[in-house]
């Protein structure tokens, strides 16, 4: 092993260009930057119709009557569908709990819930016809927070619950509850010389992917349907779609279309069932594309949260205990709320050694917008709070905030509050050391010798609100812990089919998985793995579809680990088959076929000493080696429902940030000058992609720190800002320099020692920015995002 903990050399594939460890170019990269890439919204089919969804204007209401006659009579309209037109006994769907109706029945539970569908020959015709559907609503009392959800006589949003969580929750309006009990909290409090508490609020964040929900459903001659769609998990979609259509899964054939970002927002269904219903009813292809307004109602968001934290420590800074309670608002339907609860609870103590822990996390049903998966998945909200607490505790102790974190930092061998031992590198203290040691950016960067100030470097930017008057700098730090892969006993596996053959005299590999490429670069990595394991330069990536086994979701930072592991596993099996063929054909010509370790390098079979035995073209001839295999990571187990104990996660990732901000204290404007990150990635299979993931995750964390929030009217539970005019996301002018320090400390349990990368930087970037703003202003700032009025008191 080298000093970094990565294997000192790679045997198989080490001489093949374009293999793992190289920053190979993405095959879709040029097409995307030149505008030639075909996204789902670009799809077209001859004689296709356009679908549109009528949505509820109310957050909670009974449907008194519904009249589609005028809409059906409009020229160009081919179909109008309501709940009564659903063809099968199964009317609901859901990732874990099937509580979401394909179309509203009897009542609506959130603003924007789908009520009816229209198919027409033009998108404007479909929209106008939908507007002619007459729905009479009777508004019902709202459930908007924990108090209204659990009050005596509160409206029950799902009164007939029969899911497996229902028996373990204290109220039917609580989706799931998970406690974590470790050590003796009373003894910890007794040992504490200093105790700090805090109440924190985390706003509802949108995934804000640029490519809207879209897909094309094409009816087939066998009575089935072919669906081309932008999604994160083809097989989970299939499992939910087919029962509602009343079709066997083999008659619903799904192919991934071009995905314009996801970040968790495409893990749940949006238009998939609707497009298929309309296509099957009309017998024509149906395309559905949401506009931006509809997109805000068409997918789940990040759970808003209210968090109460209490930390204690001895005078020398050793943590004595942690008590916390986190309430997540899951909105009208369950989505992935149970798993988000598990993450927030199991990671709620942060990357610290704490002997005595008492955590309670729950998710509510409410009439607010449904919430589910988003990058960071429950760990983001917790990290915001526990890192604010660490700064508060450091101030109370008179300690440097970084030194306090390092003093309590977990390491390999540490035991988490769930009782699970961390059995891979956990370089928390080192990550903090690295970001703190980095030189600070120069002060007053807006100044230029003898010239006018560069207002782009100032808070307020080109609005020219200040030339430096009232601008104060602040520096803040944060570190976080995120699990990788699916957890709590979920059978987390992936499938890969790999074919090796000779074409035009050269060996060519074809890799086929159902992995959703949503921008993370998975197809690039799969080709790198195939080049490494098979020693070939030509690798083709087959389009993702459901004609191969499941690859699981493109979420939880799992695809390179799990589907990459499946590709590696399948390539290894193909390689062994090739060598078996070679031994049978050519083994008598050289004793090394029987005695040496054989590798595939540069399209040839070679010994580990470098001697060439044969070309792959000679070995294979006309034979094709084609294998499809599954691969699983180590099993996990559910958390105990009373104590939260259990080995619930397969891997952990860690990132630390240092934020440097400048704040116009008079106007409450913030400029993030630099957002440095250090992260352990285990092994960087594609270093350039790794840095891109870290910078992207850091930018999303910055967004929720200072600008991003879906604003829901507390009186009506309606979304106030469903547009990119009013929901702000960071632009290139808002994005600071993001220097990245990549550590490669191998996890011996993972393929190539890699560690999932994409989510960890989203955790610690937000509290680092908040810490820097606190340092600049002296304000407590216990909610995200920070708005100008929070800084000015106006």
From TrEMBL:
Recite the UniProt keywords alphabetically.
Oxidoreductase
InterPro entries, alphabetized: Ald_Oxase/Xan_DH_a/b, Ald_Oxase/Xan_DH_a/b_sf, Ald_Oxase/xanthine_DH-like, AldOxase/xan_DH_MoCoBD1, AldOxase/xan_DH_MoCoBD2, AldOxase/xan_DH_Mopterin-bd_sf, Xanthine_dehydrogenase_dsu
Catalytic class of the enzyme: oxidoreductase
Output the Gene Ontology terms for molecular function. xanthine dehydrogenase activity
Q: Which domain of life is it from?
A: Bacteria
Q: Which Pfam families match?
A: Ald_Xan_dh_C, MoCoBD_1, MoCoBD_2
> Where do the Aldehyde oxidase/xanthine dehydrogenase a/b hammerhead domain residues begin and end?
34-141
Q: Does the keyword section mention Transmembrane helix?
A: no
Q: Does the keyword Oxidoreductase apply?
A: yes
Which stretches does the entry tag as region Disordered? 1-27
Assigned EC number: 1.17.1.4
Q: Which residues cross the membrane?
A: none
Checking NCBIfam families in the record gives: pucD (TIGR03196)
Protein name according to UniProt: Xanthine dehydrogenase subunit D
Instruction: Please state the gene responsible for encoding this protein.
Output: pucD
């Amino acid at each position: 092993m080298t000093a970094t903990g990565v294997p000192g050399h790679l045997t198989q594939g080490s001489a093949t260009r374009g293999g793992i460890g190289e920053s190979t170019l993405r095959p879709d990269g040029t097409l995307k930057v030149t505008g030639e890439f075909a996204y789902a919204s670009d799809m077209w089919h001859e004689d296709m119709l356009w679908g549109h969804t009528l949505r509820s204007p109310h957050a909670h209401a009974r449907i008194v009557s519904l009249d589609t006659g005028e809409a059906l009579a409009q020229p160009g309209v081919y179909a109008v569908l309501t709940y009564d037109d659903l063809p099968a006994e199964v009317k609901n769907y859901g990732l874990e709990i099937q509580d979401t109706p394909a179309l509203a029945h009897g009542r609506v539970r959130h603003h924007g819930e789908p009520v009816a569908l229209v198919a027409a020959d033009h998108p404007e015709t479909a929209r106008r016809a939908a507007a002619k559907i007459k729905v009479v609503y009777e508004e019902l009392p709202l459930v908007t927070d924990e108090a209204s959800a659990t009050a005596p006589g509160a409206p029950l949003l799902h009164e007939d619950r029969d899911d497996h969580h229902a028996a373990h929750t204290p109220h039917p309006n609580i989706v799931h509850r998970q406690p974590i009990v470790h050590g003796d909290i009373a003894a910890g409090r007794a040992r504490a010389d200093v105790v700090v508490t805090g109440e924190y609020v985390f706003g509802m964040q949108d995934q804000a992917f640029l490519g809207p929900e879209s897909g094309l459903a094409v009816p087939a001659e066998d009575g089935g349907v072919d669906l081309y769609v932008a999604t994160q998990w083809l097989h989970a979609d299939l499992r939910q779609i087919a029962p509602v259509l009343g079709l066997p899964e083999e008659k619903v054939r799904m192919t991934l279309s071009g995905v314009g970002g996801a970040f968790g927002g495409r893990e749940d269904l949006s238009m998939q069932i609707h497009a298929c219903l309309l296509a099957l009813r009309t017998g024509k292809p149906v395309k559905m594309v949401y506009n931006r307004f509809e997109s805000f109602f068409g997918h789940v968001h990040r759970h808003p949260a209210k968090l109460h934290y209490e930390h204690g420590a001895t005078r020398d800074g050793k943590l004595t205990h942690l008590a916390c309670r986190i309430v997540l608002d899951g909105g009208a339907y369950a989505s992935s709320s149970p798993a988000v609860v598990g993450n927030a609870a199991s990671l709620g103590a942060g990357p610290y050694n704490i002997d005595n822990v008492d955590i309670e996390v729950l998710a509510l049903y409410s009439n607010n917008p449904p919430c589910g998966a988003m990058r960071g998945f429950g760990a983001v909200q917790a990290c915001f709070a526990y890192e604010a607490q660490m700064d508060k505790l450091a101030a109370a102790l008179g300690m440097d905030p970084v030194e306090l974190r390092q003093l309590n930092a977990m390491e390999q061998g540490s035991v988490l509050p769930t009782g699970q031992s961390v059995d891979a590198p956990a370089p928390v203290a080192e990550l903090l050391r690295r970001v703190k040691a980095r030189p600070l950016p120069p002060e007053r960067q807006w100044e230029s010798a003898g010239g006018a100030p560069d207002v782009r470097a100032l808070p307020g930017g080109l609005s020219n609100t200040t030339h430096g008057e009232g601008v104060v700098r602040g520096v803040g730090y944060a570190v976080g812990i995120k699990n990788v892969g699916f957890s709590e006993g979920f059978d987390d596996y992936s499938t890969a089919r790999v074919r090796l053959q000779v074409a035009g005299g050269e060996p060519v590999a074809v890799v086929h998985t159902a992995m959703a490429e949503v921008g993370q670069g998975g197809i690039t990595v799969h080709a790198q793995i195939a080049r490494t394991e098979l020693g070939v330069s030509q690798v083709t990536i087959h389009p993702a579809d459901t004609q191969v086994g499941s690859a699981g979701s493109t979420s939880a930072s799992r695809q390179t680990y799990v589907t990459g592991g499946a590709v590696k596993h399948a390539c290894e099996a193909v390689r062994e088959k090739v060598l078996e063929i070679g031994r049978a054909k050519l083994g008598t010509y050289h004793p090394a076929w029987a005695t040496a370790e054989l590798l595939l390098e540069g399209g040839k079979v070679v010994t580990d000493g470098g001697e060439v035995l044969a070309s792959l073209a000679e070995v294979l001839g006309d034979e094709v080696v084609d294998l499809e295999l599954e691969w699983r990571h180590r099993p996990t187990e559910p958390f105990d429902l009373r104590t939260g104990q259990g080995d619930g996660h397969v891997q952990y990732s860690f990132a630390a940030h240092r934020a440097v901000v400048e704040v116009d204290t008079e106007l409450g404007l913030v400029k993030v000058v630099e957002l440095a990150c250090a992260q352990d990635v285990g092994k960087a299979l594609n270093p350039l992609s790794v840095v891109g993931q870290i910078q992207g995750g850091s930018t999303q964390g910055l967004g929720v720190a200072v600008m991003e929030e879906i604003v829901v009217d507390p009186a009506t539970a309606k979304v106030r800002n469903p547009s990119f005019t009013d929901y702000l996301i960071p632009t290139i002018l808002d994005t600071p320099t993001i220097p990245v320090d990549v550590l490669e400390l191998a996890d011996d349990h993972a393929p190539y020692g890699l560690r999932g990368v994409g989510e960890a930087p989203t955790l610690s970037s937000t509290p680092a920015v908040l810490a820097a703003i606190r340092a600049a202003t002296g304000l407590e700032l216990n909610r995200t995002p920070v708005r100008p009025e929070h800084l000015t008191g106006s």
